[in-house]
């Protein structure tokens, strides 16, 4: 059997919210495909719908209508317990604010999702060390977040997302809390991970960051208004 190239297929997603007595359409019939090994940036200003779309991709929210196939499954037909399993095994999250536990070491932060997935101790150690090596922080495994720079903290967060090798890495403004030099280093790391075969979906409002992806999807007022190939690599 030939493996389907599509890892994500989104069809006619719509989502509305009521704010101040008015109905706001956050997503309006959004459709696109992400293939295995893609590096896609979704760009839009505040209020464009990109955060809502990110929550859909990360299985953190459900639409009013439409379908979302992730790794061959229509996730919006799944029960809450099944959705939680999808979030835990299919999507590696990279957040702007790192979301590291301050009392835990880098090793322990990366290890935590593997505990939830039921890996035994020796297997967890193997995966964590491998993930930390990928981001160049094997020698910082015993350091806590307060003992690491912002860039190093984001690298730990990326290692945590990599642990267990989920099909998708979903990065929400991954350089937003970093200075420009450190942000560039993190983007170079993300691009290298993509070259190694990882599928990456990056959410941003920054054109320079988006331009480093292979594909750029622009969202405005809940609609995909432009699709183009990135021009900066």
UniProtKB/TrEMBL annotation:
Q: Which residues cross the membrane?
A: none
Please indicate if the UniProt record lists Transport as a keyword.
yes
Q: Does the keyword ATP-binding apply?
A: yes
| Domain ABC transporter positions | 8-232
Q: Which GO terms describe its molecular function?
A: ATP binding
Q: SMART domains, per this entry?
A: AAA
> Which InterPro entries does the annotation name?
AAA+_ATPase, ABC_transporter-like_ATP-bd, ABC_transporter-like_CS, ABC_transpr_LolD-like, MacB-like_ATP-bd, P-loop_NTPase
A Pfam family annotated for this chain is ABC_tran
Q: What keyword terms does UniProt attach to this protein?
A: ATP-binding, Nucleotide-binding, Transport
PANTHER family recorded for this chain? ABC TRANSPORTER DOMAIN-CONTAINING PROTEIN, IMPORT ATP-BINDING PROTEIN
Name of the protein described by the UniProt record: ABC transporter ATP-binding protein
Q: Which organism is it from?
A: Metabacillus herbersteinensis
